[in-house]
Design goal:
Blueprint: E1 3-7, H1 12-28, E2 33-38, H2 44-50, E3 54-57, H3 69-92, E4 96-99, H4 105-115, E5 119-123, H5 130-135, E6 142-144, E7 154-156, H6 163-166, H7 171-185, E8 193-197, H8 204-212, H9 214-219, E9 223-227, E10 242-245, H10 251-257, E11 260-263, H11 267-276, E12 280-282, H12 291-295, H13 297-302, E13 305-307, H14 315-326, H15 329-341, H16 347-361
Parallel strand pairs: 1-2, 1-4, 2-3, 4-5, 5-6, 6-7, 8-9, 8-11, 9-10, 11-12, 12-13
Helix pairs in contact: 1-16, 3-4, 7-10, 11-15
Length: 365
């Protein structure tokens, strides 16, 4: 029996690929023992036990960015956490550690190195986070979602995704799911559907602009499936053909029915669009380190998406660029094929193959 410690969490971008990888490990070897290392504050505290995996929590220790009291306390707390994880690896007989970034990963990597256990890194974003930049210095087994991710030893594995989504790579399975989606969301099956989403919390600019452009899109002959997030500042316009949701717990059906999308450029979302073959307009989140703009590069360069800045994404831009495009079925079909050309539906299996190599080759130097 092989024992794995999967480290990561905090956000859905870390937790979801972790869970998809755990599912593939368990599918391939039902006897495998899988322990997840995370924090009590992140999404993993709810999602990991709900999926049936054991969660072990450690303190949330952000790397200090400025000299203050937390910075003074950090080194000691970090060393204690590494020692705790090292003890866990040894006492549970862990054979390999797999990290997905986030607060739990850096202690996991360093503890694995101390315990002389191989560790594998998966980086979701085109611009890697601090924990994975640290870990990649000490491990030759690094999987990435995007080809241009600047990490040493990087191997393109893609993004491990839920099986409900990867199943949609099969056109016949997608057609069946799309039929179910029309009924589930109350969409007109005779019209194509524009999916609008900014993530679970929504996106102010996307919500406001699409809301203001609702009639133009509907008059172009399209449905709108608008997932606005639970902090949306716009309301349901209550127009025929416009389905407005704060939250969607069946994103597989939303992806199946989407003929075009307007979205942020989160790593998981982009990889889902590529696997399913959903073309669209990408509006990267304008705050932070600009990672979403880099995430979008593969899809945009392939011709499967159009990139527009948050500041430019206004109703006038939609009228000028999007509405004419929605009438061009040939161009949309070409963009859908281009999007699918960069999709990696077997990313979970690719990452597990990398884990197997780490197990076979032994502990990282």
């Amino acid at each position: 029996m092989t024992r794995y410690l999967l480290a990561g969490g905090g956000t859905a971008g870390h937790v979801n690929p972790l869970l998809a990888t755990a599912d593939e490990l368990r599918r391939r070897d039902p006897s495998a023992e899988i322990v997840v290392l995370g924090t009590a504050e992140g999404l993993e505290a709810r999602l990991v036990p709900a999926r049936g995996y054991e969660l072990v929590t450690i303190p949330k220790l952000p790397f200090p960015r400025r000299p203050n009291g937390a910075a003074v306390r950090f080194p000691g707390a970090f060393r204690r956490t590494i020692a705790t994880v090292t003890d866990l690896i040894r006492s549970r007989g862990i054979d390999a550690v797999v990290g997905f970034g986030g607060y739990a990963s850096a202690p996991g990597y360093l503890a694995a190195r101390r315990a002389r256990v191989p560790f594998v890194i998966h980086e979701a974003n085109a611009r890697p986070g601090l924990a994975n930049r640290l870990g990649a210095r000490f491990s030759p087994w690094v999987g990435v979602s995007f080809a241009a991710t600047p990490l040493p030893h990087a191997v393109l594995t893609g993004m491990p995704l839920r099986s409900e989504v990867t199943a949609l790579a099969d056109p016949s399975a997608r057609a069946v799911a799309a039929s179910a989606a029309h009924e589930f969301f109350g969409l007109d099956a005779s019209r194509p559907t524009l999916l609008v989403t900014g993530g679970s919390l929504g996106a102010r600019r996307i919500n406001a602009t699409v809301h203001a452009s609702a009639l133009a899109v509907l008059h172009a002959g399209w449905n709108v499936l608008h997932i606005a997030g639970n902090r949306s500042e716009v309301d349901d316009p209550e127009l025929p053909g416009y389905v407005f949701l704060e939250y969607c717990d069946r994103m597989d059906l939303a992806l199946a029915v989407a003929d075009f999308a307007i979205s942020r450029a989160g790593a998981s979302t982009l990889c889902e669009f590529a696997v399913v073959g959903v073309p669209g307009v990408l509006v990267p989140y304008p705050v932070g380190n600009g990672e979403q703009r880099y995430n979008a590069r593969d899809l945009v360069d392939a011709g499967g998406a159009i990139l527009v800045t948050d500041a430019e994404f206004l109703p006038a831009w939609v009228d000028r660029e999007v509405v004419p495009l929605l009438a061009d079925t040939e161009r949309i079909a070409g963009m859908a094929s281009a999007a699918k050309s960069v999709g990696i539906p077997d990313a979970d299996a690719r990452l597990v193959a990398l884990i197997d190599r780490a197990l076979n080759q032994g502990a990282a130097a």
